[in-house]
Queue: 3 jobs
Job 1
Amino acid sequence: MTAIPPHSSIPTVTTASGVNNSLNMVCKVRKGFHLPLSMLIIVPFLVSTFGIVGLIGWLSFRNGHDAVKQISNQLRNKVTEQVKTRLHSYLELPYILNNLNSNSIDLENIKGGYEEQRIQMQFWKQLRSFPQISNIFVANTADQYLGARRIRNMLAVENSLITSMTDELGRSQIILLARRGFDLRERSWYQNAIEAKRDIWSEVYTDVITEEPAITAVKPIYAPNGEFQGVLGISILLGEINHFLQNTKVSDRGQTFIMEPSGRLVASSNADVAISIKDKKSDRLLAIQSQDELTRIAAASLKEYPNQIDDQIQQSFIYFHGEKYFLQVSKLNDTFGLSWQIVVVVPESDFMSQIKENTRSTMFLCMVALGLTTILGVIAAKWITRPITQLSLASQSIAEGDLDQKVEYSCLVKELAILASSFNQMSRKLKKSHNRLEEYSHLLMQKVDERTQALQQEILEHELTEAALRESEEKFAKAFRSSPDGMALLSTDTYKHIDVNDKWTEITGYSREEAIGVNPTDLNLWVDLQDRDRMLAILEVNKRVANFEAMFLTKDGRKITGLVSSESIEFGGQVFAIYALKDISDRKLIEENIKESEKKYRDLVESANCIILRWDTQGKICFLNDYGLKFFGYELEEIIGTYILDTLVSSQDISGEDLRNMIAEICSAPEKYQLKENGNICKDGRHVWVTWSNKPIYDDHGKLIEILSVGTDITDRKHAEKELQSAKEIADTANRAKSEFLANMSHELRTPLNGILGYAQILKRSYDPNKHQEGLEIIQRSGEHLLTLLNDILDLSKIEAKKLELNPSEFELPKLLQSITDMFQLQVRAKDVKLIYQPLTALPNTMYGDEKRLRQVLINLFGNAVKFTDCGSVSLLVSARALELNNYKIRFEIADTGVGIAPDTLTDIFLPFQQVGDRARRYSGTGLGLPICQKLVEMMGGKLHVESRLHEGSTFWFEIDLFEVPHYSRSLAIDSRSISGYYGARRKILIVDDKTENRMVLNDLLTPLDFLVVEAIDGSDCIVQAKSFDPDLILLDMVMPELDGHETTKQLRQLPMFQKTAIVMVSASAFDEDRSLSLAVGCNDFIAKPIDPEALFKVMRSLLHLEWKYEELRSSESSLTNNSKSKDATISPLVLPPNCTVEKLLQLARMGDILAIQEEVILLQEANSQFIPFSEQVLDYAREFQIKRIREFLELQIQVSS
C-alpha cells in the first residue's frame, strides 16, 4: 500500500511549458509611456548641477556689484572729507590773521604818521608771506581806511585817499590810484558785520585785479565798553581750490565741484571757469550754466532733492549719455556763516569693468562645469544600466524557458553586484527546482509548483530587503559617527536633536547628553537668529541647504564661523532632517590675515618713502610706485613699457661710467649687482644719485623674468661727500696754518716775556723809580700784549663755538672814529705815511650797537693797513645812508697804498692762523685778526670785503645797520682819582690761591686800602681759615689741587655761618661756561685773571656796599675836571621831575634802600625822556653805593627848585 502525503506537502508537478507560462505571467509589463533608466539618472543630475552653478554665478555677480557700490561710496566719502579738510584749513587763515591784527591794532589811536606806516607795513609783510591773500585792510568809524593789496605779482599799500605801489622794502613809490568819495561804511559787508556782531564771510565776488573768485573774512572790532570801532578784513582768492580739486579726483572721468546754495559755481575739478565776462563785466556763473555738460546735468538734478540738513550726505545717481553716474552731495559749514555744497560725480563704468570680466569668466567656468557634469553623468549611467540590462536580458531568457543563464557581477556598484550574485543563485536554484519538479511531474500538480515558487520568491525578497536594510543602517551609522564634520539628526516636527556625532560635540563644546532632546536655538548656538530663519526658509523651499555660512556660539562663549549643509532624509518610514556643521574659523582667520597682508603690502608699496621699480630682462619698465613717479617727474602712462636707458638711467653715468651694457650684465649675473650706485636722470633733465638694491624674480622653471629694484635717493649724501672733501681740504689748510701759527706764537710770546723777565731781574738787583720807570712801562705793555694775544684766541674759540654775543649800547660814532685815528697818529709819524679820516656824508651822532666789537674790527683793519704800508697813505672813509625808522646803513672803508696781497693768497687771509706777506711783517702778528674781524662783521649783519693788487695796496670795506638814538644822555665824567680807602668799619678779606705770587699781588693791592687780609693755600685751608677768621669777602681761585674752587664753595655754602658770605671766583679761564658754573655752585661774582684792579674794586663795592675814599687831585686836574663838568652841564642841562617825586627819592635815600631808588628812577626816565640826565646822575651814585652823595644831590635840587 502506497502512502500518500498530505495535500499541503505534496509538490506540484509542472511541465516545462507550465514553467514558461508562470514566468511569463510574473514578468508581464504594463503597457504605457516608459523612460530609460539612464535618462532618469542623467537629467536630474544635470538640472541640479546647472541650478547650483547658475546660482553661484548670480551670487558672485551680485556680491561684486555690491562691493563696487560700497567702494564707490567709500571713495566719494574720502574725496569729500579731503575737500572739507583742505577747505577748512585754507579758509581758516584769514580769521587767524584777523585775530592777530585785532590784538596789535588800536583803531582809536590811528592818527597818521608812524602808526599808519606800521599798520601798512604789517599788512604788507603778511601779504608777502601768504600768496593766497589778495587784500588786507582795516577801517574805523571815522572813515579812516588802511590796507595792503596784491596787484598781480606786486604789492601796494592804500588808505582812504590813494593806492601806492611799493618797493621790495614796503616803501611807497608810485601812486597808482586816487580815491574820491570812498566810504567803506556804505558797503554791504560793513553793515552786515555791524548787524552780526561777530566774524562773518562776505559773498563770493570777482576780484577786479585777478578776475578770479574771491571772498572776504570780516571781523568787527569793539572797544572794552562794547562800542563798535571798525572792522578788519582779509580777502583770499579761491582759484587755488580748483587746483586742489583737479588733484583730488575719484576716478579718471569723475568730477568734483563746489557750489553755493543759490546754485552759483565756486570751484570745479575740470578747470571750468566760475566767472563769465560779458561787455568787460564779470559775473559769476550758475552751475547749471557751466561749460561742462556733466556739471550742468549734475547741478540740475540737485533741484529735485530737498535742502540738505547740516552734515548730512545725500547719494543718488544720474544718467549722462546713457551711462549711469553716482552722485553725492555734502554740505560744508563753518562757525562764521559759510555754507557751500560739495558735489562728487563718478561713472559707474569706472568700477564695473572688472566685475563684467569676472562675470564672463564665471559663465565660462559654469559651461565647462556643466559639460564635465554631462559627460560624467553619461558615464555613470552606463555603469549603472549595463548590469541592469544584463539582468533584464537574463530574466527574459529564463522567462522564455532558458534556465542556463549566468550574469557577470564584476560591477563597480556594490548593490548591483549583490543583485547579480543573487540572480545567479536564484537561477541555479530555479534550475535545480525545475529538475526536481520534473522528477515529481507525474505526482504533483501545477498548483503545488506555483505555490512553492511564489513562496520561495517571497522569502528571497524578504531576506534581500532585510539584508539591504541592515547594510544601509550600518553604512549610515558608520558615516554619521566617523564624519570629519559635525553631524546632527533632527526631528522635522520639533527640530530637536535626535543624535549628534563626536565631531559636533567637539565643535560646540556640548556633550551628547546635553544636545539630544534640545533644539539648536535652546542651546544658543545661533549668534544671529536671522541667520537661522534664512536657512530654514531655504530648507523649506529647496528641501536642502548647502554651505550656508553663519556665526555660532560655543558652550564656552567663543564665536566661531561655520558652514552648514542640511537636507531631509527618510529613514524607517519617517522623515528626519540631518545637518553637517563645519568649523571654518581658522580658514576665515587666514583669509582675513591674507587680506590684511595684501592691504599692508599695497599700502607699503604705495606709501613707501623709496623708489620701487620692476623691469624685465629687455630693460622695459613694468612697474614704478607713486614715490618713484613723483621723484622722477613722470606719469604712470608715460613710464610703463619704456626702456630704462635714456629714461631713468642715462647712457653715461654722472661720474663718466658707460652704462649701456649694465642691463645685460645685471640680467646675466644679478648676484653681482645686488647693491648698485649710479646716476639717474629725471624728466626735467635733473641728474640725481640713487642707490639701487636689486633682487631677481624667477618663474616656476627657474628662469629670470624680472628684476625688482628698490632705490634710495643719495643725492644729498653725494653732495655732502663732495662738501666733506672740500671741508677736509680746508681743514688740512687750516692745520698747516695752525702749525705756522704755533711757530709765530712762540715768537709773539717770547718777545714780551723777554722784556718782562729781563726787567724783572734788573729791578730785583736794584730799583730806582726815576731810572727804571720806563722798564716798568715795558713790563706793563708786554703783559698787556700777552693779554691781547690770549683775548684774540679766546674770541676766535668763542666765535667758532657760537658762544660770542654782542652787547649793544649807546655810543657816539664820530667820537669813536676820531679816537681810532688819533690812536695811530703817533705810529705813522715814524713812517712816510699820511693818515686820512674823511666822512663822505653827514654822520649821525649817537648810535646803538656794540661799540667794543666795532672798535676791535676797525683797530685791527687800521693796524694791518699801517703795518703793511711804508709810504703813501692810509685812509678811513665812512658814509651813512638813511633807511627807515632812524635806521642807517653805515659803510666803513679802510684803504692803503701798501704792499698789497697776491691774488692766489687773497682767499687765505680769512683762515685762522693764516698770514700772508713778507716774513718780517708776518712774524709781527698772530694770523687771527682778520678771521675774528670777518666773524664779528657777520655777527653785526654785514660782510667783510677785500680788494687788493700786489705792490699797489688793499681796500677792506663792510656795511652794517645801526640805529640812531634820538635822545642821548651824555655819560657823567668818570672819577679819575685814585682810591685811597673806604668809609665805615674795617672789612676782612680771605685770599685763597695755591700760587704764592697770585696771593702776594692781591695782598699788596688790598692791604694799603686798610683791608684786613688773611691768606689760604688751598681749599681745605680755606675752610679752616674761614671758620676762625669769619671774612666779609672770600677771593677764591678756581683751579687748585685736591679741593678746587667749585667744591670749596659747595662745602662753604653748606655751613650755616657762610650762607650769606660774599664769594668771588678768580680764574685764568675767561669762558662763559666757567662763569656760569661758578655762579651755579654759589659764588656771587666771577673775575678773570690777570686781575683788573678797577674791575675788582667795582665788584667789592657792589658786594660789600663800600663808599670809596679818593686822593685829592692837583689843582690843574681839579680845574680841568670842573671845566669838563661845566661843559657837560652846558650840553645836557638837568630837567627836574616834580618835587613830590624828588622828595620820595630823598626819603628812600635816607632809608638806604638802593634797589627801590633804582626802580623808581628807571620808571621815571621811561615815563619822560626829559628826565634822563637827572635819572642817570642818580643811577650813577646808586651804582657806586654813595648814599650820602644821593642825599646831598637831592637836597640841593629841592633847594634850587624852591
Job 2
Amino acid sequence: MYYLLGGTLFVLPLFGFAYDEKTTHPALTQEIVKFFNLKSKDLKISDEDTEYIIQGSIDEDAGARWMYHFYDPVYNRGLSLVRQWRSSKDWGQNTLAQAKYDVGFEAKSLGGTLGPLFGSKTDYSWERGIYEYAWGNKKWGLLSLGHILHLIEDATVPDHSRNDPHPPILDWGSPYENWTKKFDRQTINPGEIADEKLIILNSLDDYFNKSASYSNNYFFSKDTIFSKEYISPTVIEKGIEKLSDGRNYSFGYGEDSKGNKFRLIQIKESPWQDPEYSLKDPDLKILSDYWSLLSKQAVLNGAGVVKLFFDEVEKEKQTRALYNKNRSWLGKQIDKFKRDSFKTANVLYGITPKLEDLEEKVTTEVSPPKGGETSTTIIETPSVLEPPKVKPAEVSPPTVTAVETSKQTPPPAETKQPPLSPTQPKPSANTSSFLPIAGAGGGRKDDEPPSPPHIITEPSQDNLIFATTTITFRGRAERKTTVINSFSANTVKVADDENWSLTLGPLPQGTTTIDFSAKDEAGNKSQSKSRTVFIDTTGPQISLTINECGQSLSSSSCLTPKTTLNLEWSSTDPELSHFLLECEANGSACQNFNISQTNATTTTYSVPGDNTIYTFKARAVDIRGNVSPTETKTVEIISRPLIINEIAWMGTSATRSSDEWLEIHNTTDKTINLANWVLRSETDQTPYIQLSGSIGAKSFLILERTDDNTISDITAHQTYTGALENSGEVVELLYASTTIDKTPEISTCGGWCAGVAGGQYLTMERYEPLSSGTDASNWNSWGGFLANGKNADNAAINGTPGKRNSINYLITKDGSTLAQNKTLKKSGGPYLVTTDYIVNSGITLTIDPGVVVKFYNGASALIINGTLKAEGTSTDKIVFTSFKDDSYGGDMNQDAAATTPQYGDWGTIKIAGSGSFDQTLVRYGGVKDSSSNFWANIRSSAGSVVIKNSTIEEAGVYGLWFNNASASIQSSTIKNNTHDNQASGIVVGGGSLTEIKNSVVENNLSAGILLTNSTTTTISDSLVQNHQSSASSRGLSLVSSSPSIKNTTFKNNTVAIEADGSSSVSNGGGIIFEGNTTNTVPANLIP
C-alpha cells in the first residue's frame, strides 16, 4: 500500500488484520461452538474437536492470507485500493486460489506431476474441509471449518465490509479492532444469546452476505464515516450524555433491523467549523455498543455455518460429489498433460498426433465491481509468496535447427509419416530425417516407444468396487520393458513371459483412474492403458436404541429398574449386509445373549443379574465387508434403586407416639427424579405419599407425619398425613404403578417385623439395602449405637434418620455369629464389631482390599473358629482398628475429635482355626482383660496364622501372641507396644512352630520378641531395634528356648539377647550387634 508522508512515498504492508488472532478470534470461535452445542439436538462437538476448530480460526491469519479477509457486499468486492484482491467470500470457497500458496502443489502442476484437486497443504477452503471430514481426515476438516469461521467473524467487522484497510501505524488503525483485542477465551461475553435460535441459511454465500451486510449497513469504520461510497448507516437521532469525566458529550444513535438502538458516533459540533465525528469517546461506550451487537452476529451466523458444514458433510457422504469433482479435476490435469506432451512432440519430432475430447482449461473469472466502477487487476498471490517457476526441460540438440526457431516464426512444414505398425520394419539409417549427434557414434538414436501394455487382466474391468485401499494390478506387456503408472512412482519390470504385477495404494475413497504405460531401456514411453476402480472402505452408519432408556431414572445416564430390555438397531445404508451385536457385563460376555450376527433389527433381553452395568455394542456391515463405527449403549440395572430403609411406625416416645416418620434411601450413584414415585400403605392406602423433587446419589430422604417437627433437627423432605397401625402394615414404594420395594407381609411376622413400641421406642431398620424388603430376616430393631436426630422434645431418637442404619454396619444382622461364608466388600464398609463375633468352624470370612473393620469397645472381638482371609494390597490395605479411630473409615462415632483411639480400645482377633493377613494394619486392640482372653492384637492357641506385609501396633499388652500355634511372620512390622510392663512385640510359647522373616520388630517396652519353651522358632533377615524404654528392655528374651537366628541385626537395645540357663541360640551366621548397651546375656551366648 502506498502513503505519502511529508512528501515522501512510503510503501507499507496493508496490515488488514481484523479481530486479533491470538485473543478475539479464538474467543469468538469458542462461543460459536458453545452456542452450536447448546442448540444442536443431534450433534455435539467434543472439547478436542473444538480445539481443532479454534486452531483453524487462529491459523487463517498466517502469512498473507489476511489480504483476502475483506468483503464489501455493496460492490461485491474484496480489498480494493490501487489493485483489487479476492473477497473473503470468494477466497473461502476457492480451492485453487488457496492451493497455489503451496509451492509443492504448484510445482507438481507446472512440472507435469499429476495429483488430486484436494492435495495442497495450504488449502483450507469450504469444499476441501467438507471433503476431508467426510472421507476420513476429520482434523483437516475441522481446521478448515475454523478458517471459514475466521472469515465470517471478519465479515462482522465494519472495516472489512467497508473497504477500510486500517494499517496499525500512526493514527490509521481501527479503534474497534484495537479495543476488541482485550476479549479472550476467558473474558468474552457475546451478549444474551441463550434464547436465540440458530440462523439457518441455504449456502455459505448467504452467511457471508448476511454478516457483511449487517456490519456495512448499520456501522461505521473509522475512515468511512459518512463516506460517499455508502449511503448507510444513518443517524436516527442525537442525544447528550454525561460521561465519567463529568463532561457532556453528543452522540449520534443508530438502529438495526431488530430495533436495537445504539451509540453510532460521537459528534463534536462547533459554530465555526464543520462537525467532527469519532468512534471513540472517553468511556468507550460506542465501541462497547458496536461489540455487543457485532460479536453476537458473529456467533449466531458462525453457529449456522457450523450446522451447514455438518449438513454438507452428510450430503457428501450420500452423493460423493466432491469425490467425483476431485477425480474430474485430476482427469483434466491428465488431459492437459497429454496435450502439452503432444505439443512438445510436434515441435521436436514433427508429428501431429490426434487428440480428441480434450477439456477446456479451467479459468477463474472475476466479476467487475458494481456501480459502474472501472475494474482493477485481481492480485492472486503477493510477490513475496509467488511459487518458483518450474522451467520446462530444455531439448536442443545442436544440429536440429528447427527447435531453435523463434515462436514468432513457424517452422517449415514437413511431410508427416503415418505411425509405424508393430510389424512394419524400421527405416534404414540413410532414410532418417535426423542428423547424427556429435559424440554419439553416428546413426539414429532409439526413439521408438514400446507397445503399450497389451492387456490389464486384474482388475478385469473398469469401475469394479473394492473394500480395500491397496489393489494389485496385473497384466501383460512387452518384455524387457518397465510398467509405470500415473498414481505413484512404483514400477515393475516385465517378466520374460510378458506378465507383470504391481500393487498400488493407499488409494483414495471414490473413483480413481490409473494410466499404465510401458517404458523401455532407452526411456521411451508407450501410450497408456487405463483402469478405473472405485474404493469404498467407509462403513455404513448405524443407530442403536434401548427403549427403557427413554424412561431412565437418571438424566445423566441410562438407569432402570426393569430387567427386560428392548433393543432396536437400524442402518439406512442401501448396501447393508448384516449387523453385529455384543453384550458385556462386568468385563465378560453376557449370559444368554444369544445374538451376534443377524439381519434382525430388534431383540428382547432379560438380564440375568441385578445391580449390574450392561454394555451393548452394535455394528453394521455392508456387502463389501466394510464395518461401521461401533454404536455403544450402557444400561445400569438396579431393580431397587430406591428402597424403604427405616420406619418409625411407633413414633418417637410415649408422649410422641403419633410422631411417625419413614426414610427412603437411594442405593445408586445417580440423582433420581421423584416424579411418578409413590410411597403408600398397601394395607389400607394410608398414608399415600406422592413424592416430589429429587433424591441425591447414595442419600437419604425423610418423610415426617403431619409437620416438620417430628425430627426437630432434621428437615423433612416432605410431610404427609395418615397413621401407620401399630398392629402392622405393608408399606410399598412404587414407580409408575410398578412396585419397586415393600416391607414383609403382616402374616410373616404377625405384625411389624422389627421396631419396639413402648420403652425405648426403637425404629425398624433395614439391614442390607440391595436385598429384598419382603425378607423378614433383612429387618431388625435399632442396634443401640450410632443414634441420630432429636424428637420434638429434643430427646434422642433411637434410630438413625438421615444416616446409614446402625445394623448395616454389622458383619451380620445379629452381630454375633457367621454361619455361612461371607465376603466383606469395600463398598459396604466400614464394618463394626460390637461383641464377640464368632466365625463358626468350617465357615470362611473373606475381607476384600480396602475394607475397614472397627471394634466398638473392650468387649468386642473376632473369634475365628473357621477361616479368616484378610488379604489387601499395597494401595488398598485392610484395617482393623478402634471405633474411635477417625483416620480410617471416617468419624464413625460422630464425635469429631472429642475422643481419640488408644491401646486396648478393643479385644482381639483370636485365631482358633486359620487366619491369613496380607497388607493389613492391626492397631489399638489387646485390652488387658481380667480373664486374660485378649491382651494381644492377634492371638492364636493351636491355630494357624500367616502374617505378611502387615503392621501390628499399639496393643494393650502384646502385638502378637502364639501358644502351641503354627505362625509365620514375613515382611511385617511389629512396633510401639509399650503400654504395660509386660508389653512385647511377639510372644511365642509352648510348641509353637514360628517363623519370623524379613521383618522389623521395634520400640516395644518389655521385649521385642519373647520366646518361652520354644525350640522351633527361626528368626532370619530381620531387624530388632530400639528396645530401650527401661533397664529391663530386651530385643530378644529367651526362656527355656533355643531359636535359630540368621542374618539378623540387633540395634539400639538395652540388652540385645538375654537367655536363661536352659536356653541357647543356633547361629546361622550374619548376626550383627550395633549400638546395644549389652549385646548378650550371658556374654558367650552366641557360639
Job 3
Amino acid sequence: MLPISLLITVTVCYLSLLFFIAFIGDKYQLPKRFKPVVYSLGLGVYCTSWAFFGVTGQAATTGWWLTPTYAGAIIAFIFAWPLVLKVAKICRQQSLTSLADFISSRYGKSTRLAGLITLVSVCAIIPYIALQLRAMTDSFTAVTQYQSISGWVDISLVFTVMLAIFAILFGTRRIRPSEQNPGLLLAIGFESIVKLFTFLLVGIFVCFWIFSSPAELLDAAYEHQAIKSISPPPGYVYLTQTLLGVLMMFCLPRQFHMAFIEQKSESELNSARWLFPVFLIALNIFALPIAFAGLITFADQSVGSDSFMLQLPIYANNDFMILVSYLGGFSAATSMVIVATIVLSIMVSNDLITPKLLAREQGSRRTLLGSQQLSPDRLLIIRRITIAIILIAAWAYYQSISNSELLAVTGLMAMTLVAQFAPAMILGLVWSKANHKAAYRSIVVGTLIWAYTLLLPSMFQDTQFYQYYFAHGLFAQEWLTPTALFGIQIDFISHGVLMSLGLNILVFIYFSLTSSPSMSEQVQARNYISTKLDADNLSYGGVTPLTLGDVRAVLGRFFGKAYANRLLNKHYPHKQLHDEYTITGELEAIVEQELAGVIGGPSARLLLNSAKSQRQALVNDVVDIVDEASELLRFNRSLLQATIQNVNQGISVVDKELRLVAWNRRYIEMFNYPEQEIYVGRPVEEIIRFNANRGFFGDSPKQQEVEKRITFLRQGIHYKFQRIQKSGKVYEMNGNPLPGGGFVTTYADITEFVNTQKALEEINAHLESRVEQRTEDLQRLNKALGEAKQDAEQANINKSRYFAALSHDLLQPFNAANLFSSILQEKSDNEETRELSKNISHSLENAEQLLSSILELTKLDAGTISPHIDDFYLGTFLSPICEEFNVLAEEKGLQFKADFDNVGTRSDKNLLRRVIQNLLTNAIRYTEKGKVELTLKRQDASIFLSIKDSGIGIREEDQQRIFNDFEQINQNKEQGLGLGLAITSRICKILGIELTLNSTYGIGSEFTIQLPIITLTEQPSASESITPVNRQDLQSLKVLVIDNDDAVLGAMDKRLSEWGCQAWQAKDQQTALQVTEQQQPNLIIADYHLDDGVTGLDVVKFIHQELDTDIPIIMNSADHSEEIREEIRSQGFQFLNKPVKPAALKRTIKQLVK
C-alpha cells in the first residue's frame, strides 16, 4: 500500500506535468514531422479507463485476447478508409465544429436535428464520464485504502474539480473549435504514451516477476480450473461489439473531434492509419496474460476481474508497480474526461444555447450586430460553465451508481446510444434521398428502443415496478419483454444493439422513401456525397444585401476588427473598401465558413440570415422556400378541394368569359340539377335560362331576369339577395368578383334562420310588457324579503329572551330542591334515608346539569350567542380561573400546575372562559392521579394555550366522536353527560379559534387552542380584591339572603342555619337595606333576577353605596349567560350557578371569610 500523501503528491505532479505539456504545445509549434505522430497518439483518447482496467476483466470472463471494440476501430481504419477520408475532407472544407454540426449540416443545417444529437450525446457521455471518475476513485481507494481526504473531502470531487480546471484552461482558450488545439492535443498524446507504457510495464511485471516467464504463466493457466472453465460467448457477441467499435470511430463525439476536427491534412490521417491500429494492438498484448494471472492468484478471493491491473502489483507488494498501474488508469480516465467535456461544451453552446440567443436577437438587425450576447467572451464563458456543469452532473451520477456495476457494461451501453447517429451519418454520405425527417425520427426511435431494451432493465430490473410491468412483457405481452423483444433471446448488449439499430435503420429508410428532401437538403447532399465543394455550391447568388459594413460587424464580433479587415483586404486587394458596398456570394460563403468554425453551421446560417438588411434569402433558403411553397401549394389545393366539397353552402365559379369552371356537390343538390346540365366550360347564361324555365324566378319575365343576372356578372358587381324557392325554402345568394375576372357565388340555405327571425320578432313584441310585469314582481318580492328580515330579527331577539327566561324559571326549583336534599342528607340519622337523599341529590345534579347543557347547546345552535371581542391580558384573565380549579384539584388529590405569561390577546372573554372551564373540568374529572397542567407557548404571532392531564387518555378511533352530542367514551363511571366537549367545540367555532387534541390512551390527553398575540398599550391593572371576613369557621356568621323565590329563601335559610350561620331573608331592595343597617351581616348571598326588573346586583351595589361598606357578595342565578357572569365578576363579586351546590357554596363562603 502507498501512503496517501505520496499518492496525492504524484497525482498533483502528474496533472501539473500535463499543464506544462499543454502550455508548451500552445506556445511553441512542433516540428512538422512530429505532428502526424502526435495526432495519431491523440486518437488514443478512444482508450479510457475501460481500456486499462476493463479489458482484463473482459478477457478473464470471455477469453478474448483482442477487445472487440478495438478490433472494430482497427477495421474502420483499414477497410473503411475511404469513408474516413471523406468525413475528414468534409469537416475541413466546411469548417465543421462537432459531430452534431456534421450531421445537421448534411440535412439542411437543421438546428433542431443538431439539438437532438447534442441532447442524446450528453445523456450518453455523462454516465461514461462518471465511470472514469469511479475508476480514478476506486484505484485511489485500492492503493491507499482511504475513501476521503481529511475525513470529509470526497476524493472523487477533488478529481472532478481538477479535471474541470484543466479542461477549462486548455479547452476553451480559442473561440474557434474548428482550429487545432495543439496544447491539448500534445497533452492527450502524452497521456496515450503513459497509458501504453504503463500497461506494457504491468504486463511485463506479471509475466516475468510474479511468474518467472510467460511459459510458466501459460502452464499454470493450462492447469487451472477457473481458466479451463472460461466459456467464450457466442460469436455474434464479438461481432456485435466489433460493429460498435467500427461505429465509434464516427459516432463517438470525442473520437469524432480528435479524428476529424483536430486534423488538418490527409498526411496526418495516413500516418494514423497504421500508428493507431498498432497502438490498439499493443494495448491488448498483455490483456489475456494479466487476466490469467489474476484468475490464478485470486482464485480463492473475491477480487473483481476489472481490478486485476491494480491488485496484482498490490499482491506482489511492489510499490513502484502499484504507482505505475495507478498512473496508467488515471491517465486513461483523465484523457477521456477532458476531451469529452470540451467536445460536449462545444456542442451544447453551438447547438443548444447559441441558436436560442440568435432567435431572441432576430427581431432587429442593429440589435443583433451590436449585441454582447454573442461576443467571443460570452461564448467562451458559456463553454466553461457547460464544462463545469457536465462534470458536476457526472460526479452526481457517480455518487448514485452501484459499486458492483462492471465498467464494460456501462461503456457498451453508452456506445450503443451514440451508435444511433450512424444511419443518419453514414447513409447521408451515400444516399441522396436521405432527408431531415428520416434522420430526426430514426434517432428518436433508436434512442427510445435503447432506453427500453438497455436502460430500463439495467436500472430497474430488481424493482417491483419493473417486475410488475415489464418482467413478462409490457401489457403482459411476452414479445414486448425489454430483454427479449419480438421473442429474440440473445445476450443483453447484442439484443439492445440489434433492436435499437435495426429499428433505427428501418425508420430511416421508410421516411427517406416516403418523404422528399427539401432543395436545401439536396444541395447539401451533393456537397456531402461528392465532397467537391466550391464557391458555386456555397455562394448565395449575384448581389446580396449584405454589405462590407455588415461583414466587418459580424466578423469583428467573433474574431476582432483586425482579422475582419485582413480577410476583406485579402478578398479585395486593390479596392478602397467602403461599408456600403455589397459583397459577392463567394465572400458570403467564406464568411459563413468562418462563422461556422465558431458557432457551428446551423447557427452561422441563422446569424447571416438575421444580419441581412432586406431579409433577402440565401440561394439555399430560396430553394427551401420554393420547395416548401410547392409542397404547401399541393397540400392547399387538396385541402381546398376537400373543404369546398364538404361545406354546407353551394359554390359556383365562372371565369372572365362567364363560363362555369368549378362547383361543389352542395350546389348540385340545392338546385337539383340533372347531371348532364352541369359541366366545365358551359356558359353560365344557359344555366340561368335553364333555371328560369323551371320557374325559379316566379312570375317575372324570364328574359329580364336572365339579363339582369348576366349584367351583374359582366360588371363584376357584388350582390346579395334572398329568394324563396318553390319548396318554401329560403336561399341567400352572395356573389363576389374575382381578381383578373370571373365571379364566385355562394348559396346558403337560410330557411331556419328566417323562421327563427320571425319567432324573435314575435317574442320582442311581448318583451316590454313581460319586463314590466317582472319588474313589479321583483319589487313585491323585495318588499316581502324586507319584512321577512325584520320578522326574523325580532324573532331572534324574542328567542334570546325566551331562552334566558326559560333557563331561569326551569333551574330555580332545582336550586331549592338541591339545598333541601343536602340538609336532609346531613340531618337524617337513618342510613337508608341518607342514602336516599344522596341519590336524590345526585339525580337533581344530573338533571340540572343536563338541562343547563341542553339550554346552552340550544343557544349555540340557534345562533343567539354572538361573540363580543375585546383585547385583554391573558394572564390577568387566567388567574382567577386557575385559583378556582386549583381548589377542585386539591379536593381530588391532584396536582394543578399553571405556567403562563401576561401576554395580550383578542377574543370574547366570557366564551373563552367557558371553553377553558370545560376543558379543565374534564381534565380533573377524568384524572384519578397525577396532575393537570395549563401552559402557554408562543409561536410567531400566535400563542397556544394547552390543558394537559395524566388521565385515562382517549383511543385514536374515539378522538373524533367525543365532540358529538351526548357522546361518552367511558360509561362505566359516573362522569359527565357527554355535552361538555360538544359545547366547547361549538364555542371555538363561534370564536374562530382552532381546537386540537393530542391524546395517548392510558397516558393522558392534551387539548390546545390557538389565540392571536397582540400588543396592548395599557398596563394590566391589579384585579380588585375581596375583603375577607376574618373568621375561622362558619359559626355565628351573619348572612343576608336576597331572593324573590320563597322556596329558595327557605332552603337557603335552612342550609345556612345547619352550618351554624345566622341568616336573614329579604325579597326586595328596601328590606335588604333595613336588615343590613340593623344586623350588619358578614356576607350577602343574592339572586340576580328579582321582581319588577330589579337585579340583585343593583341591590348589593346600592347597599355598598348607601352604607359605605364592602361586605363580601356571592351572586347566584339560574341564568347561565356569560354576560351576567362577566358583569358580576367585573364588580369583584363571586358567582355561583343555580341550582347552587352546597359544597360549592360552602367552599366559596370559606374562601371569603377565611
